[in-house]
Write a structure and sequence with these properties.
9 helices; single chain; 31% helix; Aminopeptidase; 13 strands; 9-stranded mixed beta sheet; alpha+beta
Length: 299
């Protein structure tokens, strides 16, 4: 078994995707792009560009190359440990799926002898409220493999990156959250409805949009933004809190931590003032609540 295939762990599949545990990988090859000079990067990026580029939902290649240079053992100035990778699946040499994602982990919260909390300006924060975060950026599966279960595996494989990043950060938390930014529910948009239903069946939940009003940063090149104005993209937050999928709410402080981590990741490769403004707005919205409801993605 090669190193990439060794990442296939059925126990990482979400509750609704467990039915795909027996997916036949014999004709599929999993390829991990984890460095900026990887020979498959240009092909994978071009395929993502055809799918997401026209919607301003894909970062520039230079941004992704920078992320591929992140070292999870070296924290950013803000204390984040970051790792990024793209996964490519091939059949008979042909690209049939692409997934990219980032792991975002805070440094050590406590030592083995210390209590499981960290003192912050807002008071003690429980370890469970500062989970390791995986940002699920983009995924596409070519039509001939849709419904095969491959998409379910592509929702689970990023958990491995979270574990490796947390280990490098010496973070003792075992709480992990997978987060995807998805277009707001529109029952007339067939393609969007299909994606949201797939995540819903898998066990992902949506943060109540009216309470958060999350915006993805503007991914256009900095020079383009400077000549215009930032154009953030309004999206919904879809979560899988691993091991806590059945919970119908999330503490506002936990969500604030997730959004701080997410925007902190974005600030490492996008225009900082634009990202900081979005982060401050999200933080203010979270502060108005004690908890936030988690609802079906198609609600």
């Amino acid at each position: 078994m090669d190193a990439a295939t060794a990442r296939l762990r059925a126990e990482d599949l979400s509750p609704g995707d467990q039915r795909f545990a027996d997916l036949d990988w014999s004709e599929l090859v999993l390829e991990v792009i984890d460095r900026p000079d990887h020979p498959s990067l240009a092909e994978a990026y071009a395929r993502l560009g055809r799918e997401f580029g026209s919607r301003n939902e894909l970062e520039t290649l230079a941004v992704l190359e920078k992320r591929l240079g992140w070292r999870p053992d070296v924290p950013t100035p803000s204390g984040l440990h970051l790792a990024y990778e793209l996964l490519v699946v091939r059949r008979a040499g042909r690209l049939v799926a692409v997934r990219d994602h980032s792991a975002i982990v805070r440094g050590p919260l406590h030592s083995a002898a210390a209590p499981p909390q960290a003192d912050t300006a807002d008071g003690p924060t429980r370890v469970a409220e500062r989970p390791a975060l995986v940002h699920l950026s983009h995924v596409l599966v070519e039509p001939e493999l849709r419904g095969s279960g491959l998409a379910g595996w592509l929702r689970a494989l990023p958990l491995g990156l979270a574990r490796r990043c947390a280990l490098a950060a010496k973070n003792m938390t075992d709480a992990v959250v997978l987060l995807a930014e998805m277009e707001p529910f529109d029952p007339t948009d067939t393609a969007s409805l299909r994606r949201l239903r797939a995540y819903e069946r898998a066990g992902f939940r949506k943060v109540e949009p009216a309470a958060v009003e999350f915006c993805q940063p503007d991914f256009r090149p900095p020079a383009t933004i400077a000549a215009d104005t930032p154009r953030p993209v309004r999206l919904d937050l879809i979560l899988r809190r691993v091991g806590r999928e059945a919970e119908a709410s999330i503490p506002a402080r936990e969500l604030a931590h997730l959004l701080d981590a997410l925007y902190g990741m974005y600030a490492e490769s996008l225009e900082r003032d634009h990202v900081s403004a979005l982060a401050a707005a999200a933080r203010a919205r979270c502060s108005r609540h004690a908890t936030l409801g988690l609802i079906a993605p198609t609600a």
